[in-house]
Description:
By secondary structure, the chain is of the alpha+beta class. The protein has helices at 9-16, 19-38, 57-65, 124-134, 154-165, 173-198; strands at 69-84, 87-99, 108-119, 139-150, 206-213, 217-224, 231-239, 242-251, 264-275, 281-291, 314-315, 323-324.
Amino acid sequence: MTAGSRSTLLPDAQYCYxxxxxxxxxxxxxxxxxxxxxxxPSRAAEGPDLPDATQxxxxxxxALTALRVDPAQIYAVSEIRLRRDAVSLIFSEGIxxxxxxxxxxxTGVVFSGRGHLSANLRDPAEKQSLVHFLGVPLxxxxxxxxxxxxxDGSAEEILDQLRRSGANPMSAEEFASTWDQSLAxxxxxxxxxxxxxxxxxxxxxxxxxxLVDERLGPFDVLIDGRRIDTVTIGQNRWAAGNHFYDVWxxxxxxxxxxxxxxxxxxxxxxxxxxxxxxxxxxGTTNTGxxxxxxxxxxxxxxxxxxxxxxxxxxxxxxxARNLSE
Length: 325
């Protein structure tokens, strides 16, 4: 469906997808992480399950965004498979490179070659949506390039397949340099979501893939347990100068856990609007919310979804400095 065509789509689509909207949302999430983190004194993590509280969310975000292809971890691959919920990815033949590790964790891979995506959709409404956008009720799509970000163990799973196949690292300077240019633009949007898990005592598995097909162009696959519809597949597009996000399919995955309680609940709001002579509407909305999730050094992030990329936001937490865009 086109973004905004159903009531349940708006917050989810704006949280993760449309690039012009997404940049604002991700900045807001980062601001929330920074503000909540500032409420607690920095100290070493206690216990094996808590993140390192000596790293600020901004430092983690910058480090994750700066990651590039690891030249020592590039492989010629054949028939590497990943299955995430209802979605299956096959890297049939090509070159795959792991991104550099940060804090001992690998959070991404890139691929150039021949690949294939398929998805098992059971809901008739989702199949009808595929017919609308792709002309067929099945998602069975090829791709020639893939950018993956994750914190769900995908790197270890891929590396295990490479080891069992006897693959060895190879030198591919052109592959690395070409992808490094793309990563400078691709990383910021995904790094913020990774930060949320990085600073959380209870991380939720996250998997994102931008796949490029020669006919369709780039399209997205996202599996995120923090969203109501944990599986979403779709594509950005422009029409008549307007930016849309076409949701090919969006549904609750078979392996989904019960949704977490909302990060905030509304407390108050005021709306002040003026209709100008040219019939445009100018207005200001002030909202007050209260955090309802557990606080502490292991819970330093809050999700803040905004209704439009042009909205300016201000966030304030007790004992934290004011943060605004």
